[in-house]
Design brief:
Protein name: NAD-dependent protein deacylase
Low-confidence stretches: none
Oligomer: single chain
Radius of gyration: 17 Å
Subcellular location: Cytoplasm
Catalytic activity: N(6)-succinyl-L-lysyl-[protein] + NAD(+) + H2O = 2''-O-succinyl-ADP-D-ribose + nicotinamide + L-lysyl-[protein]; N(6)-acetyl-L-lysyl-[protein] + NAD(+) + H2O = 2''-O-acetyl-ADP-D-ribose + nicotinamide + L-lysyl-[protein]
Number of strands: 11
Bound molecules: ligand BV8
CATH architecture of one domain: 3-Layer(aba) Sandwich
CATH class of one domain: Alpha Beta
Mean pLDDT: 95
Distance between the termini: 16 Å
Shape: globular
GO molecular function: histone deacetylase activity, NAD-dependent; NAD+ binding; protein-malonyllysine demalonylase activity; protein-succinyllysine desuccinylase activity; zinc ion binding
Cofactor: Zn(2+)
Amino acid sequence: MLTGAGISAESGVPTFRDADGLWEGHRVEDVATPEAYDMAPTRVLRFYDERRAALARVEPNAAHHALVRLEEVLGEDLLVVTQNIDDLHERAGSRHVVHMHGQLLSALCRVCEGRVPWTRELVDHPPCPGCGHTELRPDVVWFGEIPYEMDRILHVLGSAHTFVSIGTSGAVYPAAGFVQHARRSGARTIELNLEPSEGSMWFHESHQGRAGELVPRWVD
Ligand code: BV8
C-alpha cells in the first residue's frame, strides 16, 4: 500500500498539488530542500513547526480507518508505505507503517545524528536531548535526500501480490516508480485517486474518487 497527500486531504491536511504547488504560501522547492534549510533555516523550521502544530487540529478519516480494518485481516502481509509526514495512519491504528519521507513528529540532530520524538517548535534551536547541541532539524526527507527504508520497500515490492496506490499524484520519485517495480514482479496494481495520476498507465485498475469513499468500499 503506497499512500500520498490525497489520503489525508479529507482530514483537512493540504496536499501539495491542490495548493497549485504552493504550500502554506511557500513553493515546495523553497522549503523542502537542504539548500533552503542552509540558506533560510528560520523560514524552513517555521514551515515545519506550523505543519506539526496543525496536526493537533486534524483527525484520521474513513480511508485511514479502512486500512486498519484491512490490517486486522492481513496482519504483517499488509505494509503501508506512506509519503506523508503526518501521523494519521498511526492515530487510526495502523501498526505496520513506513514513513519513507520522514515524520513531522520526529527531529534529527545534525551533530549526533540521533532521531528523537519531537512535538515542540524547532525554530528556537532547542538542545538535542542526546548530545545537547542546538542543531535539531525536521526528520523529513527533502528533495535530493535519500528516502528511508528503500531496501525494505524494494524487497516488499519484489514479492508483492497486490500494490495499491492511494492519493498520490505520482510526481515524486522514487515513490512514483514503485508501481513499475510491483508490476514487473507480477503484482496486481490498483490506483485509488481523485484523478488519474502521472503513472496511471502502469496500473491494471485505476479508480477515481475521494479516498474517504473509495478506500472503505475497496477494503470492505
Ligand atoms: C531521491 C517530505 C535519490 C517533505 C517530500 C528529475 C526526474 C525524476 C526525478 C528527479 C528529477 N530531479 C530530481 C529528482 C528526484 C526527486 C524528484 O522526484 N523530484 C520531482 C519533483 C521530479 N526526488 C527526490 O529528491 C527524492 N530523493 O531521489 O534521492 C535516491 C533515490 C532512491 C535511492 C537512493 C537515492 C526525495 C523526494 C522526497 C521529497 N520530500 N516530502 C515534506 O513533506 O515537507 S515529497 C512530497 O511531495 C511528499 O512526500 C510526496 O512525495 C510529494 C507530493 O506527492 P503526493 O503525496 O502525491 O501529493 P500531491 O499533492 O502531489 O498529490 C496528491 C494527490 O491526491 C493528487 O493526485 C490529488 O488528485 C489526489 N487527491 C486530492 N484529494 C484527494 C485525492 N485523492 C483521493 N481522495 C482525495 N480526497
